Amino acid sequence: MTPETENETVTAQTLDLADTQTDLRILEATLFASAAPMNVADMKKHLPHLDDAGIESLLASLKQDYEGRGVALEETNSRWAFRTASDLAEQLNGLRVEERKLSRAAMETLSVIAYHQPITRAEIEAVRGVATSKGTIDALLETDWIKPGRRRETPGRPLTWVTTPDFLDHFGLETIVDLPGLDDLKAAGLLDRRPAVSVTGELFDSEDGDGDDVAAPVAESEDETEAA
Question: What is the torsional sign of CA 49, 55, 61, 67?
């Protein structure tokens, strides 16, 4: 290799490194500015010259750069976001503001959907023992924690309900299979003789005492029970 060729190679490598650093900074800024976790397709809109492998390589580098720092780059359901380091959660507890206050009925419904999805409204009511009001479903839709699933191929083709990536992200779950199982619930002392939905509702930190009595008959709606 001649000196001229060697210099050209070094120059090309320097330019490539500079381009990579620029791409890394753009990706970092994009993730910080995003109001919601992003998938690779979202990121490619800001780095259109890169393919999926290129984006994933930058993500791996960025994740490594933030290891051991106050914030970490985390992946949940193939979506990426910066989050406070998990080992600092206790120290930052007083800084967290809970903006979403749900009724006991909504938390129970969310628990049933999370553990039994995809599930129809009639099936939710069968598990809970009460009719589910439209307001309960609307409240969960507003949080973006549930969404309509596929319709059942049964008479009437009823709509099913499933949880969303936002649900996983909010509760720190990578996938839905990371929900606590029976053994976990027993170890945590959350299984007793109360109705199952009352117990699983505690998993989502339900502190609101409003809602219906889970032992009420299905024919009785949440609205009627709460009014009583």
Answer: positive
